[in-house]
Design brief:
alpha/beta; Elongation Factor Tu (Ef-tu), domain 3; Rossmann fold; six-stranded parallel beta sheet; 37% strand
Length: 233
Amino acid sequence: MRAKLIESFELAPEVRHFVFEAGDAGHNDFHFDFVPGQFVSFSAPLAGKQITRAYSIASAPGRGNRFELCLNRVPMGLFSNFLFEMKPGGDVEMQPPLGMFVMRQPARDSLFIATGTGIAPFRSMLQSHLTESSPTITLLFGVRYQSHLMYGAEFKQLALRFPRFRYWPTLSRPDPDWRGRTGHVQEHLDEALAGRRDMDVYLCGLKAMVDDVRRLLKGIGFDRKQIFYEKYD
């Protein structure tokens, strides 16, 4: 199938938000559906070879054939630069959504830990699952700079609307006027868990963070079945 770019805009320096529309030229009744947390794979012939890259969906299902992505421009990265230069109306080959990084059902009290563009699948999950009666969810989101707190205003609004949702941004390189949490997400793990061992933990971000948090969780008694993760280099 093809994915046509509807629009894109800057979220943070070298990070863009993309809105695509999925379609199948041979089927007028085609319907694009996915489970929050899944990803799509794009393919294109670049630099003389066919390249495929996977990107987590950053929006909730149920919006017709439209879906959203959040990705950063990788220095010398062929595919990210190809997408960053794409104009509205351009399209790219896409495979159907895949992935097992989805919320366990029935949902339990959960801790979401994201770094960088690892925030994308959590945005999809929160848009889909947050209700007045949903279990408690804490989002611990770590980036270097305040300018990279993607979707920050949106998460703050969700926290105001849903008392069971807590949004905890943390900066490893804060400006002098930053009054929030600082350091890496690992440093706030104990505070977020508050002594509990009966919740699920979902991790998405760079491999080093995911591996370190998994090690910490197992060290304090979490079962591997309580830990869900997706990592990238």
